[in-house]
Amino acid sequence: MIYDVIVIGKGPAGISCAIYTTRANLKTLVIGKSDSMLLKADKIENYYGFENPIGGKELLDTGLKQALRLGAQIVDDEVVSIEKTEKFRVISVNGEYEATTVLLATGAPVVRVPVKNIDKFEGSGVSYCTTCDGFFYRNKKVGVLGYTDFAIHEANELAAFTQDITIYTNNMPLNISENLNESLSKFKVNTAKIAEIQGQEKIEEIVFADGSKELVQGLFVAYGSASSTSFALKMGIATEGKSITVNDKMETNIPGLFAAGDCTGVFKQISVAVGQGAIASRQMIDYVRKTGKDG
Ligand SMILES: Cc1cc2nc3c(=O)[nH]c(=O)nc-3n(C[C@H](O)[C@H](O)[C@H](O)COP(=O)(O)OP(=O)(O)OC[C@H]3O[C@@H](n4cnc5c(N)ncnc54)[C@H](O)[C@@H]3O)c2cc1C
């Protein structure tokens, strides 16, 4: 099935958009993990329409129920990659989906990679994009820094270029979905805590907390979840710092691809996320109608 709209993220921005597109009779799928920033908000008292403070979780759950009641399809899953051909192909841990338009509503990227010197070697052996840089590491010894499904996805992408791939979890327990266990068996896994990255001009070795070392020629960072910035790197989406660049219609530089909420880096508030989701929905509805439903 080809969806009219795929929304990535089930926070206020994504759900607001889905409410509008569903009510406009567009086939809408929301794919999101359950870790909206809103879950961290104990009490909210600056969002319109609530006389008394409301808890973030309650507001989030009510929004999800509202979208479901209106007919949106919502799945709990993590998107690891988006590809654009004629349509958009959205690849998640548990499946692949196609859509005419996509909304990025993945919230503010939280990329904290607690490894000394990682920034120093960015572009000199440390990469955040297998699609962009994998080719440069043909038959080389590479590592993937990560411990989740996203890391396995990136290692799988690299397997097209080299067979010498180690997943470095940096002392994090591997947190992999069952359906990726077979993929995992193709790679070496090192769970030791990393002390630092070393090298002259380029990355040369990973030094572990116990003093041991491993030589690597490239290290791909896929730490935690794929964020809007990971998608931006892979797809060439314009960014300003860690935020997705959008115009006043919430359009990115890629036709059919929109962004809303904290991932755009504007005033990070629920009202703004909800408003941006609504603006994006209006454009997505027009886009689908112009390009032809299912066409
Ligand atoms: C402690 C705290 C208190 C706050 N208090 C207030 C307040 O009082 N008032 C106010 O207006 N705002 C408040 N905020 C801010 C508010 O929570 C955010 O502005 C709002 O949640 C942004 O909505 P969003 O939809 O853009 O992102 P989020 O709510 O962060 O949702 C992002 C969604 O994307 C999903 N996602 C991310 N990556 C992927 C992926 N690869 N695949 C699938 N899904 C993915 C996440 O799981 C989540 O579902 C607070 C924030 C915090 C942290």
The end-to-end distance, rounded to whole angstroms, is 12 Å
Structural class: alpha/beta
Shape: globular
Q: Main beta sheet: strand number and arrangement?
A: 7 strands, mixed
Helix content: 25-40%
Might you state the CATH topology name of the largest domain? Answer: FAD/NAD(P)-binding domain
Number of domains: 2
Give the strand tally. Answer: 17
Ligand kinds: flavin-adenine dinucleotide
Helix and strand pattern: EHEHEEEEEHEHEHEEEEEHEEEH
Task: Give the overall average pLDDT.
Answer: 93
Query: Low-confidence runs (pLDDT<50, min 5 residues)?
Result: none
How many helices? The count is: 7
Would you identify the CATH H-level superfamily of the largest domain?
A: FAD/NAD(P)-binding domain
Strand portion, in percent?
Answer: 25-35%
Please state the CA-atom Rg, rounded to the nearest Å.
Answer: 20 Å
Query: Any guess at the CATH architecture of the largest domain?
Result: 3-Layer(bba) Sandwich
State the CATH class of the largest domain: Alpha Beta
Written description of the protein model:
This protein has 295 residues and is of the alpha/beta class. The chain folds into 2 domains: 2-110 and 227-291, FAD/NAD(P)-binding domain (3-Layer(bba) Sandwich), CATH 3.50.50; 126-221, FAD/NAD(P)-binding domain (3-Layer(bba) Sandwich). Helices cover 25% and strands 25% of the residues. It contains 7 helices and 17 strands. Strands 1, 2, 3, 4, 5, 6 and 17 form a 7-stranded mixed sheet that branches. A 5-stranded parallel sheet has the order 7-14-8-9-10, with helices on one face. Strand 2, helix 2 and strand 3 form a beta-alpha-beta unit. The radius of gyration is 20 Å and the shape is globular. The termini are close together. The mean pLDDT is 93.
